[in-house]
């Protein structure tokens, strides 16, 4: 029981780290896209 519990925790950590990276990337991309749109408008 403990072994599978530990495995699940490790998997959750991996998923969390991955989603964290995606969020950081997405926000950076959104900022870049927003900046590009702003320069196009100007």
Describe it.
By secondary structure, the chain is mainly alpha-helical. It has one domain. The chain is built from one helix and no strands. The longest helix is centred in the middle third of the chain and has 40 residues, at 2-41.
Q: What descriptors fit this protein?
A:
1 helix, 42 residues, 0% strand, mainly alpha
Distance between the termini: 61 Å
Individual helix count: 1
The total number of structural domains is: 1
Largest beta-sheet details = none
Rg, alpha carbons? 18 Å
Structural category is mainly alpha
Pick out the low-confidence regions: none
The ordered string of helix (H) and strand (E) elements is H
| Helix content bin | over 70%
Number of strands: 0
Any idea what the shape is? rod-shaped
Strand residues, percent: under 5%
| Average pLDDT reading | 88
Helix/strand layout:
Blueprint: H1 2-41
Offer a concise description of the structure.
The protein has about 40 residues and is mainly alpha-helical. Helices cover about 95% and strands about 0% of the residues. The longest helix is centred in the middle third of the chain and has 40 residues.
């Amino acid at each position: 029981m403990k072994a599978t519990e530990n495995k699940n925790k490790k998997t959750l950590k991996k998923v969390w780290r991955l989603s964290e990276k995606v969020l950081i990337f997405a926000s950076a991309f959104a900022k870049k896209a927003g900046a590009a749109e702003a320069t196009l408008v100007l």
